[in-house]
Design a protein that fits this description.
mainly beta, three-stranded antiparallel sheet, binds zinc ion
């Protein structure tokens, strides 16, 4: 997909991505549940990302390996970012409609932490947290 821009609710922050992966993932881990009130639907954007309005971005250090960015004006959850590789996962809801049409929801992680009260009907590849860590340790 050509470059695209993710924008928060108040539009003070826009994040230009040169390249995104249109395969959407959901994370059901307890940190995501607390952060966003439910599963986190995200888009892998790699490292080729330019943040405009960076003065409105606050990053919360959510674990040893990652931080979570939000707009300090409107509260929109912007990204999950790996500290080591500086790789961005952006919230799927921030992208323009034209891009969202190309999104395909195909994987779910930390499936063992998903609360019982919901489940997605999409056919996806599901991984536990342990499987995710094992995959990234390769
Ligand atoms: Zn905002
Ligand atoms: Zn999570």
């Amino acid at each position: 997909m050509p470059s695209t821009t993710a924008t928060c609710l108040c539009k003070k922050v826009s994040i230009k991505c040169e390249e995104i992966n249109t395969n959407i993932g959901a994370c059901h881990c307890s940190t995501c549940q607390t952060w966003g009130g439910g599963a986190y639907l995200s888009v892998e954007a790699g490292t080729n990302v330019t943040v405009q309005g960076a003065e409105h971005v606050t990053a919360y250090d959510s674990s040893e390996w990652a931080e979570r960015g939000f707009c300090n004006k409107c509260g929109t959850h912007l990204f999950y970012k790996l500290k080591g590789t500086q790789q961005y996962m952006l919230s799927a809801g921030l992208f323009p409609d034209a891009d969202v049409k190309a999104f395909k929801f195909d994987h779910q992680i930390f499936i063992e932490e998903k609360p019982e009260f919901y489940s997605f009907a999409n056919k996806t590849q599901n991984m536990t947290g342990a499987e995710v860590f094992a995959k990234h340790a390769e």
